[in-house]
Amino acid sequence: MPSTQQELKYWLALLRTPGVGSLTFHKILQVTSPTELFTDSHFNLEALGLSARSIAGIKNPAWSRIEADLAWLEQPKHFAITLEDAEYPQQLKEISNPPPILFVRGNLQLLHTPQIAIVGSRNPSVDGKQIAHDFAAALCHCGYTITSGLALGIDAASHQGALDAQGFTIAVAGTGLDRIYPACHKPLASEILQNGAIISEFPPGTGAQANHFPRRNRIISGLCQGLLVVEAAQQSGSLISARLALEQNREVFAIPGSIHNPLARGCNALIREGAKLVETTQDILEELGQYYQQDNKLPVQEEQTMLDLEQQSLLNLVMYSPTSIDSLVTHTGKSVEIIASMLLLLELQGYITSAPGGGYTRIK
User: Fold this and answer.
1) For 240-280, how does the pLDDT look when each residue is reduced to its tens digit (9 = 90+)?
2) pLDDT value, residue 101
3) What would the DSSP string read from start to end of 116-178?
4) CA–CA separation, 364 vs 323, rounded Å?
5) In the chain, count of helices (H) and strands (E)?
6) Any residues with CB less than 8 A from the CB of 223 and at least 6 apart, and which?
7) Exposed, middle or buried, 341 (CB in 10 Å: 0-12/13-18/19+)?
8) What is the pTM of this model?
9) Taking a C-beta distance cutoff of 8 angstroms, is the pair 223, 117 a contact?
């Protein structure tokens, strides 16, 4: 059962105590409960190694802020679950530094479903976004919940892929849940909340700070059975998530890319270090096993084409990186006008997309 409101009040108070992060919180839990802590003597608090600032906060809690937290929790589908609650996800509890409290908006039961995390660049290629979207959709059809970080780029494409497949998705936020960051994702967040969930270790009112997002990454990897990196530069935050996943004994998967694509270097490096190279969803399912029977949807990149021979021949010349019309004219011997007309048809059918600079990129 969840903590009583009286017990939760002290958990929230400790969470908001200055100088008490998750590591200190865990250290306290090994010795005493939050409820008992707030009635403890100054001497005992010092014996716990707490700073003068933290002790002052415990002796004089900001109760008005705690009352505001409790008021937030009275709203429909708003939850705060502590490490001692049955609702706390076991998968996350097993990592070395789990959040003492998880704030949740939406479908609480999703925390206990099999999850695959998808992460990657905030500035991905068109191809990368499509891959993230399609993998998320296909994995939803296999019974997985898609977990990601609500960031721009690959995160957003992954959430949207799950939603478009009428599947479930969890967004792990780096702010309090009364805020959406980035603000442009408010419509996406609203769509996620219809059937999915947004979660955070940060209490309401917490704004975006740079150090929050690496902390958030351990939750993304901690909740999942496996983590898929779609596109990542060599210094990408996604690589932090991947290494956290390895430390947490999660499976790590990576989409390979061209040696000329800087967004592929992080994924290629992960593969060199032992991540599983992934080309289709089947590569992931073989590693993890299927939790549910896959439906009749075709896996990513395995759709049957409905093109005539001439269209298929041209499509085969369009790379998964920008390809110029001049190059296609040279290879086919056809006029610019004919090639442009055929490319338009391929684009309308969803096989290619226009790239910056006037070229085209194949997306399936």
Assistant:
1) 888 889 889 899 999 998 888 888 899 999 999 899 999 99
2) 97
3) EEEE--SS--HHHHHHHHHHHHHHHHTTPEEEE---TTHHHHHHHHHHHTT--EEEE-SS-TT
4) 14
5) 17, 11
6) 89, 91, 92, 111, 115, 117, 147, 170, 172
7) exposed
8) 0.79
9) yes
